[in-house]
Structures are given as C-alpha cells and as structure tokens.
Amino acid sequence: MAVFNVNLPPVGPDDDVAVVEGGEIYSQGSAFRRFLRTFFENKLAAVGLVVIVLIVLFSFLGPHLYHTDQVNPTLVLPNGQKGPDAGPVAGHPLGMDTAGFDILGRLMLGGQISLEIGFVAGLAGTVIGVVYGAISGYFGKWLDMVLMRIVDVGLAFPVIFLFVFVASVEAPSKTLLIVLLSIVTWLGPARLVRGEALTLKTREFVQALRTMGGGATRAIWRHIVPNTIGTIVVTITFQIADAIIILSTLQFLGFGLPPGDPTWGSMLDQAINDASAQVNGYWWQIYPAGVLIVLTVVAVNLVGDALRDAFEVRLQKR
Amino acid sequence: MIGYIIRRLGQAVIVTLGVTIITFLLLSLIPASKRAREILGTHASGQAVQAFVKEYGLNRSIFVQYWKFLDQLLHGNLGFSYHLEISVDTLIRENVGKDILLGGVSLGLAAAIAIPIGIAQAVKRNQLFDYAGTSTSFILYATPQYLLGAVLVIIFAEHQHLVALPGIVDQNAQTVRGMLAHPTNLVLPVATLTLSIYALFSRYMRSSAMDALAQDYMRTARSKGLPEYLVLRRHLLRNSLISVVTLIGLSIPGILTAGLIVEDVFNYPGVGYYYYQASVNGDFSEMVGITVLVAIVTVLGNLAADIGYAVLDPRIRY
Question: Chain B residues with CB inside 8 Å of A275's CB?
C-alpha cells in the first residue's frame, strides 16, 4: 500500500512496446490527440476512468436519487424492527449501521468526504512538491543540499507514526487531515521534479533565457514547471491514491472525524469492529466500504499508469 | 567508494538530527501542563504541576530543552514510559525480538514469492500469467492492511476455524520463544504482512526483471548457447537480486508502518502494538522514544541500501 511508495524508485514505463519502424502509419494529429490515443489504447485505463466516474456519480449524484436521513439515526424501522444493526430490509438494501444510519446512503456521504480529502490532499501535496522541487533543482548547490535533506527527513519520518502522534494532541478535523496528508504527499513529487529540474536547467532554452537576462522566477514558471507536466499529472494520480489509503488507515487507527463526517475508512473500521464482536452476524458488511476503497485506488492507479505511458513520447505512435 | 560512504554517513547523521528536531517540535506542541498531568495523574494539584514543570525544565527556552532531549538520546536514553513504568529502552529490548520475528519471516516470505513471480511475469509478459500477477498486485496494493487482516480473519478463523482467532495470545506468548511455541497464532499476522510487503515489491520486481531482460549480457548469454534456465538463473535472477537489496532498504518505513497496523489488528505484542497503545493512553515519552528509533532504523536502511547497491554492483562507482 502506498503509505510507503513515496520512497521507492519509480516503476519504469511498461515494457516492450514494439516500435515498428516504417511500418504502421498513423495520421499525425496534434500532440494532444496523440496523447489521447496512447492513453485510450490502454483498455485498463479506460476501465479505470469509467470506474472513477461511476464512483464520483455514486457519491455526489447518488444522494439525490436515493434519499436517506444521515443526520438523525433511525431507531425503529417502519416494520417495527429495531433500526441500529438491522440487516437488509425493504428500503435499506445494505442494512443499517450500529448507530442506525442507512449503510448505502452513508457510503455515498462517506464517498464525498473520502474523495474530497483524498483529491485535495493529493493535489495540494503535488503543487507544493512541484514548486519546492523546481526551486531546489534549479538553484542547486547548497540550497539544493539543504532542501533535499529536509525531504530526506520527511521520508525518514514514518507517516503513520506522525499521524498517531498528532492525533493524540489535536482533535481531528477535515482541514487538519488535509494539511497532514499534504505534509506526506509533497515529498515524492518534490524529489521527482527536482531530478527533472536538474537536467532541464542545463537545456538550451533555459540557457537562452538566462543569456537574455531572464530571472529565476521566469525560468522556473515558464520553462521548468511546464516541462515537468507529465511527471506532475502522473504524480497527482498516485498521490491521490495514496492519500485515500492513508486516510482510511488513519480512521482505523482511531484518527476519526466527528460522527457527522463519515468516510469509507471509518465505516470499514466500524464494520470490522461489528464483525469481530459478532454484533449481528452481518460480517459481509465490511465488504461494501472495503470494495469501494480498493476499487477507487485501483482505478486511480490504472489511470496513473496509463497517463505515464501516454506522456512517454517514445511510446506514442506517430 | 570510501569517500562516498563517508559522505553518505554524514548525510545520515544530518537526517537523523533533523528527525530529532521534528520529533521535539511535535512534543513541544503539547502544553507543559498536559505532559505533567500525563505523569502525575489527571487529579494532580496545580502546585504539583508547577513544581513538575520547573523540575524538568519544561518552562525553559525551547533550545535548552532540545539540547537536554538530544543529550539524553545521545546517551542511549529513549525516555521513560510512566504508564508501563519501565524505560522505553527496556520496553524495546524486551519486545523488539517479536517484531524481528514477525517482520523477518514476512519479509523473507514476501521476497521468496515476489522474486520468482516477478521474473516469471517478465519472461511471460502480456500473457495470462502476467495479467493475473499484475491484477493481484494492484488489488493487494490498494487494500489497506487492516482490511486484508480482517478478510483473512473472517475467511480462515471465523468460517474455516483453521487457525486461532487473533487476540487469543496467551501469556506464554509474551516472548519470542512463547510465540514459537504456538505457531498457529503467527499464521494470520505473518500472512497479512507478507501479502502487504509482496504488494510493495511485486511491481518493482517485474519491471526490474524486464529491464534486466533487455540487457546485452542476456543476449550474450543466450548467444553463447547457455540453456535458457541457466540464462535465467545465472544472469537474470542474480541481477534482479541487486534491486531487491535496494528495494528492501527503501521499503523499511513501509514495512514498519505495515507492521504497526498488523500488530494492532492481531494484538501482536510487538513494539508497534505498544506504540499504538501509547498513543491511545497519551504516553508521549514512549511515543517519542519509539518514533526516534523508527526514524533511525529507516535512515540506516536507506544507507545500507545505497552502500549495498554499490558493493553488489561493481559497475557502480562513486
């Protein structure tokens, strides 16, 4: 799982694309069209994209079609049965949780919060990391040395340990979670972009800009960052996937949000507790939230892999 | 080479210092009175708290406090757990054996599975076996460890009664020897951690084997008439092992984090379990001690990976 992969070497573009020299001829098309073609040639990526769209629709559109009360728990069902921990009944296909909330409806609300935190944290972390890495790589020398040691410190600090520590000091909130997750997710992109900036700054177009008297800000914003766009987009996807997994693990470790803010992680944690305490015999209730987490992360990773291939110009057919 | 090792050691020392600074800053986020009450008890009088704060210098400037903290660490003093009433050093010494048992066995198993499968996937790429392997590792990677643990418990302990339920670890099992006397208790924790580590390794193994396959020495080995199995064993396997060394070194934070979660899921009394208990109890000194230790292990792991890489691969010269 990803809590970890920040530190690992990036996996190279997948293999073995046989470039048929002088063989197949494709219409040229714009760079963007070539990009799209390479992306969609990967069937799994298309599947991943569809899954992501479906999950977003489920979470954000679902509550408008499937109305449930996620504010006031249902203590007694219409048929007279006790609400909390009720199994599947008419109108509540997945049953109710321990507090008396409809599980299907809660999965939608939980999805909104999980996706929101995951996306914002992944995005924020990447933006910070890109700027940081570009500055470090561009200026080099002692500044690079200092900045990269800071990244090393961050990578040496086990993330879960950091969270557990902060959780015991501060009351968790959505904002705090996003800030903490961003603290974790910026490290990987910072390293990657710094590496690219190191080579980019020696390229002719940056040299030309310097000769013309262009400043560092312009070089970084107009030349270095735009040229790492491939890395950036790919990194964002992986950071989002990582953030979603870390988020769910945090809920399990007790870094829970207030009851009004359910996430898939907190629901999964609840379901596992119920299953191990054998509250109602519905051990399968761990699967809905669990499957949603796994599906989302797999789908985001599939898209990330395909994006990486699509940005790899060598793999594009011309 | 010697110069490289010295420079790398210097970096490791700086990073470790950085980790102690961050840990200390985190610790200083906690109000002095709260830390005093952690030790004196929640009902301590204001006067007693004042006296404690003064005695331990919690009202001194942050630099003086940090120096004291560092001084203790340098003398090998990781702090004292007032909840468990033993020093953190003792706590770690008594329990780290169980972590090494769990982590070592899982790491060994994961490597023993990931290496041959990665090579087989690279050799038979884009065939059914490769797709199956890739899908498995994607799904495992996307599954939070605690969910994996819960699913294994439900399948193998609750439904099949093949192994003991977690948490039924008797008192004899407080030592490594006790653990080994009841190996069935170890099956599920080891299986969960093995699969988690396998998920970390498998994708890198496949791509590194793929890289190795494309090398000139493979072509040379084949063209001199070496049978295929010898080509794979002598050239591919051996060269893939080099990347395993790096992978293990870099995965240490991931393995430790996964270990913490697995220990928590299965009530496995290792250092990770005590760390989690400390966070629940607000035992800050214990948490700080273990956090610093984990960071040092991580830094050493990275160091060992870099040096090991240089030693194993004679082409790498710094």
Answer: 150, 154
Q: Are A263 and A251 in contact (CB under 8 A)?
A: yes
Q: What is the mean pLDDT of residues B251-275?
A: 83
d(CA B14, CA A44): 44
Rounded CA-CA distance B249/B312 in Å is 14
Question: In Å, what is the CA distance from A258 to each residue of A91, A170, A255, B280?
Answer: 26, 13, 10, 17
How many CB atoms within 10 Å of residue B277?
16
**Beta strands per DSSP E along B112-232:** none
For residues B171-187, b (16+ Cβ closer than 10 Å) or e, as one string?
Answer: eebeebebbeeeeebbe
Which residues of A are less than 8 Å from B141 in CB distance?
1-2, 297, 301
Q: Which residue has 């072509």 as its token pair?
A: B219
Cα A278 from chain centre: 33
pTM: 0.80
Q: Which residue of A has its CA nearest to B266?
A: A276
CA dihedral (A60, A45, A37, A312) positive or negative? positive
Q: Is A20 exposed, middle or buried (0-12, 13-18, 19+ CB in 10 A)?
A: exposed
Lowest mean pLDDT among A108-112, B164-168, B181-185: B164-168
In contact, A133 and A190? CB cutoff 8 Å: yes
A40 — contact with chain B (CB < 8 Å)?
no
3-state class percentages of chain A: helix first, strand second, coil last, to nearest 5: 70, 0, 30
Q: What is the pLDDT of residues A186-218, one digit of tens each?
A: 888 888 888 888 888 777 787 888 788 777 788
Structure tokens at B134: 């890739």
Q: Token match 């994006």: residue?
A: A307
In Å, how far are A306, B300, B308 from B11, measured between CA atoms? 36, 11, 16
* Mutation target vs B (from A157, A269, A286; most B CBs, 10 A cutoff): A157
Put simply, the chain B residues between 124 and 143 with a CB less than 8 A from any chain A CB are 125-126, 138-139, 141-143
**Contact criterion met (CB < 8 Å) for A9 and B126:** no
Q: Contact at 8 Å (CB) between A164 and B297?
A: no
Q: What is the pLDDT of residue A24?
A: 53
Within the 241-300 window of chain A, which residues sit less than 8 Å (CB to CB) from chain B? 241, 245, 248-249, 252-254, 265, 268-269, 272, 275-276, 283, 286, 290, 293-298
Phi/psi at B86 (5° precision):
-140, 160
Residues in chain B closer than 8 A to A254 (CB atoms) = 279-280
Q: How far is CA B149 from the centre of its chain?
A: 17
Q: Does B257 touch chain A (CB under 8 A)?
A: yes
A44-49: average pLDDT: 82
CA gap A265, A249 in Å, rounded = 7
Cα separation, B123 vs B121, in Å, equals 5
Q: Answer whether A275 sits within 8 Å of B145, measured CB to CB.
A: no
End-to-end, the C-alpha distance of chain A in Å comes to: 36
* From A2-16, A169-183, B177-191, B238-252, the region with the lowest mean pLDDT: A2-16
CB contact under 8 A, A161 and B290: yes
CA-nearest of A107, A86, A105, A93 to A282 is A86
Spell out the residues 6+ positions from residue B109 whose beta carbon is closer than 8 angstroms to its own: B190, B194
Conformation bin of residue B282: beta by default, left when phi > 0, alpha when psi is -120 to 50: left
